[in-house]
């Protein structure tokens, strides 16, 4: 049985499904649940190329931070009262941040959605779930969303 479960969320359908699985596992095993959301500081190279755009980068970063905090708050609300939940907002590349948090918490299971970013970004940057799966020293549960559920939500 698992005692310290870490689940990574990013607002995607796969992450929502992973959260539900992690909550169920934590409730069944009376485990501590850590919910982590990772944001990365915006880069002018990603926004407008080498020319610095007229964007307030501090305000953009704060907006990203608030969005991830709201994700975490919503995730915590989904857990039953009898499940011990800790929320963590991390900054940096998602894979390394998730792995670092799992080591810090001495997690014995990581739960993560199979996809979180767009398909093109995953091809270019590598899948976060794949990186976590390959580099984790503890079991990793990679959660998929059924194709029908994805199609139904995409059409809504």
Uncertain runs: 119-125
Beta-strand residue fraction = 15-25%
- Total number of beta strands: 5
Structural class computed from helices and strand pairing: alpha/beta
**Integer-rounded radius of gyration:** 16 Å
Distance between the termini: 38 Å
Please, how many helices? 7
Would you kindly provide a written description of the structure presented here, covering whatever features stand out?
- This protein has seven helices and five strands; from the N terminus they run βαβααβαβααβα.
- By secondary structure, it is of the alpha/beta class.
- α1 (13-29) links the parallel β1 (4-9) and β2 (32-39).
Short description:
The protein is built from seven helices and five strands. The chain has 156 residues and is α/β, with parallel strands linked by helices.
Give the arrangement of secondary structure elements.
Elements: E1 4-9, H1 13-29, E2 32-39, H2 44-48, H3 57-78, E3 85-91, H4 94-105, E4 109-113, H5 119-125, H6 128-135, E5 140-143, H7 147-155
Parallel strand pairs: 1-2, 1-4, 2-3, 4-5
Helix pairs in contact: 4-6
Main attributes?
single chain, alpha/beta, 7 helices, 19% strand
């Amino acid at each position: 049985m698992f005692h310290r479960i870490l689940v990574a969320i990013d607002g995607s359908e796969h992450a929502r499904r992973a959260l539900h699985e992690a909550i169920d596992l934590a409730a069944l095993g009376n485990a501590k649940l850590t919910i982590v959301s990772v944001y990365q500081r915006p880069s002018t190279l990603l926004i407008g190329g080498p020319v610095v755009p007229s964007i307030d980068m501090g305000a953009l970063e704060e907006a990203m931070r608030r969005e991830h905090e709201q994700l975490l708050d919503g995730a915590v609300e989904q857990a039953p009262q009898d499940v011990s939940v800790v929320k963590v907002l991390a900054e940096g590349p998602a894979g390394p941040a998730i792995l670092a948090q799992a080591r810090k918490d001495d997690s014995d299971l990581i739960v993560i959605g199979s996809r979180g970013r767009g398909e093109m970004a995953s091809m270019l940057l590598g899948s976060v779930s794949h990186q976590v799966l390959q580099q984790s020293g503890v079991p990793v549960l990679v959660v998929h969303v059924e194709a029908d559920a994805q199609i139904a939500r995409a059409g809504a």
